[in-house]
Amino acid sequence: MTDETRTPGDEAPLRTPLHDLHLALGGKMVAFAGYALPVQYPAGVLKEHLHTRAAASLFDVSHMGQIAIRAASGLWEDAALALETVTCADVLGLAPGRQRYGLFTNENGGILDDFMFAREGDALALVVNGACKAADLAHLRARLDGAASVRMIEDRALLALQGPMAEAALAALGAPVGTMRFMDARRMTILGADCFVTRSGYTGEDGFEISVPAEAARALAEALLDHEAVEPAGLGARDSLRLEAGLCLYGADIDETTTPVEADLAWSIQKTRRAGGARQGGFPGAEVILRQLIEGAPRRRVGLRPEGRAPVRAGAPLFADEDAAAPVGHVTSGGFSPTLQAPAAMGYVPAALAEPGRRLFAELRGRRVPALVAPLPFVPTSYKR
Amino acid sequence: MIRFTEDHEWLELDGDVVTVGITEHAAEQLGDIVFIELPEVGQKIAPGDEVVTIESVKAASDIAAPLEGVVTEINEKIVENPALVNEDPMNAWFFRMKADDPSAIEEFMDEDAYKDMIA
Lengths: 385, 119
Hints:
The complex is a heterodimer. Chain A is of the alpha+beta class. In chain A, 19% of the residues lie in helices and 32% in strands. In chain B, the strands form 2 sheets. In chain B, strands 1-2-3-9-8-5 form a 6-stranded antiparallel β-sheet. The two termini of chain B are 22 Å apart. Chains A and B meet through helix 2 of A and strand 4 of B.
């Protein structure tokens, strides 16, 4: 499925195990994170987006990196503590069968990647961004050397089934998912295939991510699509859904120059890793991040609701006043929200300008468009807690 | 008479008035259109002037004036409901203009030539 030596962008894009299915479904293929993936199907981004919120959509996220970590000792504690050397999350406190969101940080407190990690027995199962996975693997191997084995799972696809009907569609295949709640992780057999299922996703909806052996991926995808509530959805809808949910896109909303505190992701740093906690610090950039947790950061990621109908997109400068000469920040993600039927965006602004309701201006084709700082998410999430 | 530009506009000539829209091919390439900004009635335009802005779910694009002249009418319906352009691009016109030299429209592609271009 993947080739670790490649970097995104070079030569022809790789294909996921669902490539032929995408073509058969009329997917409009684009290169993304080194893979050929459907940006949309014939229904189009708007309909795919709204269908996800109303029923359920199936996304191919096989480009993402699935990484297994196991301690050399075989003990959970050692695997957890090893991962804690590269992330600000509380890994040790994760109960079996549960999943969390984490960040890999660098020495300046910037973010190398964001990822999900689940505990399966004594092992860790990570899902990292496709565009970062080669670098993440190298980073983990270098930092965890000797303490834990780090393995990229190359022979599995990853499907995301998202929306209020996701549970019904998966249960219809006999998958025992009804008792799972948000961020539960469980191994189960679906249609005879060994699957690792988490009740999570990146759309703001209830739903699941299903790690399935590559050779069984198409049959599972087709069986899910046979359910009357399920339609395929592409990268376009995935992006507008995550924007509405206020979730960060790595490389746009967060990167090596943004800290977790600036990115408003401090909730992913549990108490035990903060100053005064049982295992405070101990991750790259801890000095900067722990200080910012107490003192605040000079700038902050905020939601923005531009006036009118025109989308304000990534890169648009933000101004404190209609006639201010110098920008105070810029938009990092932006587009049209199908649920709000209005433009929505996220960006960084000085902390003093970050309170909801604050009126800023975004530059759009040479004009200053008023944009109100808005609470995130733009659309309420519907996770099954 | 209907003509097509390399920028995937369709132009329909009636007397000295040219109606301008975008082709089905263009609408499909743009994806779901969510915002359209049209020129003002009375605005003088010339080839190369970016007179229309279209925002789809994917990206922003501009449409250039095909001919020299004056905008005489704009289609407010597509401003209120941009999805009309995706639904029926050959009828969801953008604006009408009085061309200084209507015969200049003949320089553009006919339907067969346009179909060859997008094939």
